[in-house]
Amino acid sequence: MTTPETQIKQMVKQYLDLKGVFNYPVLQGMGAYRGIPDRVMHYNGEVHYLEIKKPKGKLSPSQLDFYLQCQKDGIPYHVIKSLEDIQEIVP
C-alpha cells in the first residue's frame, strides 16, 4: 500500500516526464543534508527544488531552514501537495 505522499511523488514524476522536464529524485541516506527536498527539476533555465508533502503535510524545521536559504539565495523552492500544484508551475 502506498502512502498519499508516495502517490503524489509518483504523479509529479510522471507529469514532469510527460512534459519533457528534466527532473530527478534526491536520494536520502547516511550523510545527506538535513532538509534537502525530495526532487529537483530544471525548468526555464532554472533549477527548482520540489518538496512533496501529503495534503496536510508541513515542513520540518530542517526543511524550513533549507526553504529559507533558497529564498535568501533566490532559488525556486516549491512545496507540492497535489498534481495541481506542479501543473501551476509547469503548465
TrEMBL record:
Which ranges carry the VRR-NUC domain? 3-84
SMART domains per record: VRR_NUC
Hydrolase as a keyword?
yes
Key words, A-Z:
Hydrolase, Nuclease
| Lineage, uppermost ranks | unclassified sequences, metagenomes, organismal metagenomes
Q: Which Gene3D superfamilies match?
A: 3.40.1350.10
A Pfam family that this protein carries is VRR_NUC
Q: What is this protein called?
A: Putative VRR-NUC domain-containing protein
Q: Please list the cofactors this protein needs.
A: Mg(2+)
Q: Does the keyword Nuclease apply?
A: yes
**Which GO molecular function annotation, any one, does this entry have?**
nuclease activity
